[in-house]
Structures are given as structure tokens and as C-alpha cells.
Amino acid sequence: MTNHHRMRQTARLKLLQDPANAQHMLMTEWPPRSRTELARIGKLLPCLNILMGPRNELLYMDARVHSLLEHLQQRARRYSVQKAWTATAPNGRSVEMPLNSSAAIAFKAMVDDAGGAYERPMLALIDSQLRPGDVFVDVGAHVGYVSAMAATTGATVFAIEFQRELIPLIDQVATLNAFDLLRPLNVAASADAGLSVAVRGHLSPGQKLESALSKQLLGTDPASILND
Fold first, then answer.
1. Which value, in Å, is the radius of gyration of the alpha carbons in the chain?
2. Distance CA 138, CA 94 (A)
């Protein structure tokens, strides 16, 4: 249980004892963890501003809520897609996957070749283990397929992907499905510290950070246009 979760539980208990306490009322909802909670706190804050009087922290919270709502609308417009395909998570939830890049098209072909059984045992295990409030880290997220499936459980998902051209695809997946706790990170996981390279523009789902051939041919020269 996180500290925020404990604070919320404590605030709820105190609110039961003192239902008119505006401070406890606020702490049961802040920070919001979903779009439903975001909308609810957006309606609650003006009321609390009357009950508690003008306060800088309430003004800040209100500004953050409205700024985020505007940001979500902008993302929906920016990441809208014309072509998509629908995958089904083990829990039955439908997930929209964009089809607006060669990497996305190639990945769908892999799923189709598996006859709909692509990674199903792993996805079933993930679904059986994750709950809202859990944290899941997908190392090598590619187009965000496994990350999206994990996000259907309500868990917080970090999608680690070192091919930077794939990050917008993961962002699209998160936006199309309102997975607001799915966060792509353009980083790499490695056993070695230091500078390494990714092959620029080669968006393979099997590409790895360390490759003897890529190191031999590409090196780690940051001035090379071949590398990321």
C-alpha cells in the first residue's frame, strides 16, 4: 500500500467522524487516480473553495485539474488515427491498436500468424497477478501491446522502449484507450553502464540493445547518423 493510499484511508475514516470537515473531504480525493476521480475533484474544488475560503493550494489544485483536462483533449486530437485494429485482453476488454506505421503493421502480422494466441499464456499470467495500485514494468515494449494488456487491469504501467520512433505509437495506444497510467519511457535496460546504440529507423520487435554485429559495425559514435 502506498503512502498516498494510506493517507486517503485515514482521511476517509476522519471524514466519517467529522463529515463537515472540508480538509478531510479534500484528502479523500487528492491526488486523483483516474478520469472519474479527476472529474469529481474538478466539481468538488469550487465547493471547497467556498467552505475553506480562498487558499493558494486550492487555486493550484484547480489549475492543475483544468490544465490536465485540456491536455487530455489535446492528446486525443493529436493521436487520433484513421486505421486501427482491435485486440482482446484476457479479462475481455477490447484494446485499440493503431496501424499507421510499418512497425505497427509488422507487429499485427506477427499476432495474426499466431492465430490470436500471441503471448496468451504470459498475458493470462499478467492479468491474474495485477490489480489497481500495482506497478508493472514492460522492458522492451515495442508498440505497447503487452503494456496495453497490463493497463487493462488498472495497474500503473511503465513501458520501457529504447527505439525512440516507437514512443509515439505507445502514446497513441495509451490515448486511444484512455490508459492514463500507461507511461512510455524512451530508455534502455542493460547489464552494462555507459553509452550504447540503437539502429536508427530499424523498428524490429526483436532488436536488442547489445548486439555484437551492431557494436562492430556501428560502434558508439554519437556523431554517426546511423545510430540513436
1. 22
2. 20
